[in-house]
Each structure stands twice: as C-alpha cells, then as structure tokens.
C-alpha cells in the first residue's frame, strides 16, 4: 500500500488491508488534523481493501466530521463500489460523482 499527497488530497494505491491499516490510519488522521475543507481520497489506484481497510476509511470519515471537514472518495473501483452498496455505506460516505447503483453488475 502507498499513500501520497497532502492534507487536501491523498492518492491510495495497492492493498488497504489488515497489514497496512495502521500506517494508513496514521497518514489519514494526520491529513485530517492538519488541513481544512474537504479531504479528497483518490482510490483509483487501489487494488483491494478488506474489512479492516474499510474500517480505516470509516474512521477517517468520522474524524473528518469531528474536525468540521468532509472526506470525499474519488475514483472508487467498481468492485469496491459494490461493497459500499452492499454495506449501504454509499449512503453515508461522500463519493465524487456518486455510485450508479443500477449500473453495477449483480454479485
């Protein structure tokens, strides 16, 4: 997993899973704490995430809300869009461009 960017926009690539969760959490929390306004999280280079990785995203979302910021997901890959829909988190998280639920293939 790799994360690059600053307190306004971060690009996440690789796997966001139990092995990378602690590092990702540290980077995301620092970005939330050090900035203002929306924090854009570009996931277009993300290969996969597991429940722990999704928990890191949700934790950053909650922390951003407490800091008066908003976490915005950009470039969410289709397989991860399906997971967000299945867990109904697409209704909670801000997703740039939204998710076309009707266009996602059935699993």
Automatic annotation (TrEMBL):
SUPFAM superfamilies assigned to the protein according to its UniProt record, in alphabetical order: SpoIIaa-like
Every STAS domain range: 1-107
Cross-referenced InterPro entries: Anti-sigma_ant, MlaB-like_STAS, STAS_dom, STAS_dom_sf
Cited Pfam families: STAS_2 (PF13466)
GO molecular function, one term: anti-sigma factor antagonist activity
UniProt cross-references to PROSITE patterns, sorted A to Z: STAS (PS50801)
PANTHER family named among the record's database cross-references: ANTI-SIGMA FACTOR ANTAGONIST TM_1081-RELATED (PTHR33495:SF2), ANTI-SIGMA FACTOR ANTAGONIST TM_1081-RELATED-RELATED (PTHR33495)
Annotated family: Belongs to the anti-sigma-factor antagonist family.
NCBIfam families: ant_ant_sig (TIGR00377)
Name of this protein: Anti-sigma factor antagonist
